[in-house]
Structures are given as C-alpha cells and as structure tokens.
Specification:
This protein is of the alpha/beta class and 359 residues long. It folds into two domains: 12-65 and 170-328, Rossmann fold (3-Layer(aba) Sandwich), CATH 3.40.50; 83-159, Rossmann fold, CATH 3.40.50.1100. The chain contains 14 helices and ten strands. It has helices at 12-16, 20-23, 40-46, 66-79, 94-105, 121-132, 143-157, 175-190, 207-219, 238-254, 285-298, 307-317, 337-341, 350-353; strands at residues 36-38, 50-53, 84-90, 109-115, 136-139, 162-164, 198-203, 224-229, 269-272, 325-328. Helix 4 (66-79) packs across helix 5.
Length: 359
C-alpha cells in the first residue's frame, strides 16, 4: 500500500523559509504529501528497485502535476484581482483541464487556446470535460496560430486576464515542484523512501523538471533528475530547464529567501530523447508496453503521451542503475468518465465538434 507521511498544512518550502509565507501567494489544493511506494512486481520483472511517487493523487477531484503548479498560480491571480485565467495547450491539454477545474472552483472564468495534436479517446474526453466546466475553448489550429492568439491577439481584448503559459511552466508554476523536491527529501529523511539514484519525470514544458532540479538542490538531496522528452526539442531541452530553474531561484531570492546559489551547469540533470517517437501525442510501442505493464502488474494508470513514455524509460534505465529509482506519476488517476459523457459533442464549438466520430 502507498505510504502517506503527513497532512499538509503549509508547503515545506515555507516551513524552511518562513518569510516566504508572507510574500509569495499560495492556496492549498494538494491536501497531503503524495504517497510513495515500491513497485514490487515491476521491480521483479525489470530486475531493478523501482519506486513511484503518486502525484496522480495530488487532489481527490483531479490529480496530476498541474495541481501543484496551480497552488501558486491561482493564488497570484487572486492577489492581482484577475477575473479570468487564459492559458494554452494541445487539444487534450491536462494543464488546461486542471486550470478549468480549479479556476471554476475559485470563481474565475477560464479561456483555453487549443492547438492541434493527434486525436485519441483521451483528447475527446478532455474536450467534453472542458465544456462541462464552462471553459471557453478557442481552437487555433497549428502552433503558430495558437501562440499568436495567446501572446498577442487575445491580450488586446483582455488585458486584465491572468495569463498562464502552456503547462503552467513559469517562475511561479515551477515553485510547485520546488515544493515537491522538498517533499521527496522529507520522505527520504523519514525513511519511507530510500534515496533514489535517479528520479524520472516527463519533460514536456519542463516546469516539473525544473522545479525538481531546483528543489533537490535547495533541499540538499543528492540525486539525478532524468527528464524524458515528450515534446519537440525547442520546448524540452537543458537550457529551457535551467532557465526556468534560475528564474524561480531569482523569484525566491527576490521575496526574501536566504538560499544558496544555483548553478545552471549543475550536473544532476539528464534529458532522454529516445522515447519521443514520431512526435508529440503520438504513441510508441515502448510506451504502450509500459502503460500495459504498469496497469497489469501494479494497477497504476498511465497515459501514452507523457507518463507511458516516461515509464518506458524507467524500464529501460532502471536495470542499469545501481540503486533505487523513483518515477513521478504526473498523470491524473481520478475517473471522470461520467462527467465527460454527460456532455454531448454537438454542444461543443463547431471547430471542435468535428473531431468526434459521426453518430
């Protein structure tokens, strides 16, 4: 069974740097430290020592890594007095879904700028969920049109909105995984998790990866962060990760944190491109196998776009690693099928309804 270590009243980041509680807005969405567990059956199958951190359980209403980022982003939007959240992502964006869900609970309007990706059942379900949450969906076609609409055109119409980049990956969103880095270090110090030699996470917009890299450094946990690239190289690369980490480091210092310097040439980061496949959102044989194994042997649900490819890298690398490895499950494990099926595809904007098969 998963090991749950403590209730979460304040971020560990604030407990280590108390003045940040007064200077950095934060709202509680993650109810407790997410559990860690050893994947015994998969460890036997792979001949390795594989552990998982269950960030699919960040919230009982919608899990995954985006919830941690929104703790800082939503609080900042409220402090600024914003009435609407505007963000961007692919057609089936999990970040967009989390923003729509928690934005609605906060009483904020949500606008989603959507760009193309291969359409599968997960994408179709998320489109229906966006509608069920009252999000305004703006299908922009290719990436260039989406970027134009998000960065330029829409800001002319809604200068008072709170703009969140794809994946929630900016200096504030990254703090969600700086906090997770402290949380993992705390679980190691409590003895519920052995110190991992490598920590595996999907590298999409790189906010999660950057936060862990910075968080481990600040928490003094010596481990290697292993990012598995699932987006094009212009989105997921070492410079992007370190740039985000440095900006979050600067934000913490600006708000009064007494923290050691963080070097962008830190050697504890690896990025693996071998699982990427034909492109973003395209399934791979290795990814499908990893998804099946995780479900069949451990009852853990993964997706083919992010966590499936990441876990494929775990299965490949763990047997070569002398020591335990930790996989961060950033997928949402809350079943939202009924909520999605309550929405008729015909009620979606016409540019999006076209993706649904004819009845």
């Amino acid at each position: 069974m998963p090991v749950i270590t403590r209730n979460r009243e304040l971020p560990l980041l604030f407990k280590h740097h108390e003045n940040l509680q007064k200077t950095i807005p934060w709202t509680p969405l993650v109810e407790q430290a997410t559990p860690v567990e050893r994947l015994d059956a998969l460890s036997r199958e792979a001949g390795a020592d594989i552990w998982v951190k269950r960030d699919d359980l960040t919230s009982p209403i919608y899990g995954g890594n985006k919830v941690r980022k929104l703790e800082f982003l939503l609080a900042h939007a409220r402090k600024k007095g914003s009435k609407a959240l505007i963000t961007m992502g692919a057609l089936g964006t999990n970040h967009g879904l989390a923003t729509a869900m928690f934005g609605k609970k906060a009483g904020l309007d949500v606008v989603l700028k959507l760009t193309d990706q291969p359409v599968n059942e997960h994408v179709l379900q998320n489109l229906r969920l966006f509608a069920s949450l009252g999000a305004k969906m703006d299908y922009c076609g290719g990436a260039s049109g989406t970027v134009w609409s998000y960065y330029i055109a829409h800001r002319v119409q809604n200068s008072g909105g709170y703009y969140i980049p794809a994946g929630g990956s900016n200096s504030r969103g990254v703090l969600g995984y700086v906090e997770a880095g402290f949380e993992i270090a705390d679980q190691v110090s409590q003895g519920v998790l052995p110190r991992p030699k490598k920590v595996f996470v999907a590298a999409g917009t790189c906010g999660t990866l950057a936060g862990l890299t910075l968080g481990f450094s600040l928490a003094g946990l010596k481990t290697s962060v292993y990012g598995v690239r699932v987006t094009p190289t212009y989105m997921a690369n070492r410079n992007k990760v370190m740039g985000l980490a440095l900006r979050s480091h600067a934000l913490l210092k600006y708000h009064g944190a007494k923290i050691p310097e963080f070097r962008s040439n830190a050697g504890s980061l690896e990025i693996d491109s071998r699982q990427y496949g034909p492109g973003y959102g395209h399934e791979t044989l290795q990814g499908r196998r990893a998804v099946s194994m995780a479900w069949d042997l451990e009852g853990i649900k993964l997706d083919p776009t992010y966590t499936g490819k990441t876990f494929a890298a775990v299965l490949d690398e763990a047997p070569k690693t002398k020591g335990p490895v930790l996989f961060i499950n950033t997928f949402n494990s809350v079943d939202m099928t009924d909520q999605a099926e309550s929405v008729s595809p015909d009620s979606l904007p016409k540019p999006l309804a076209q993706f649904f098969p004819a009845a």
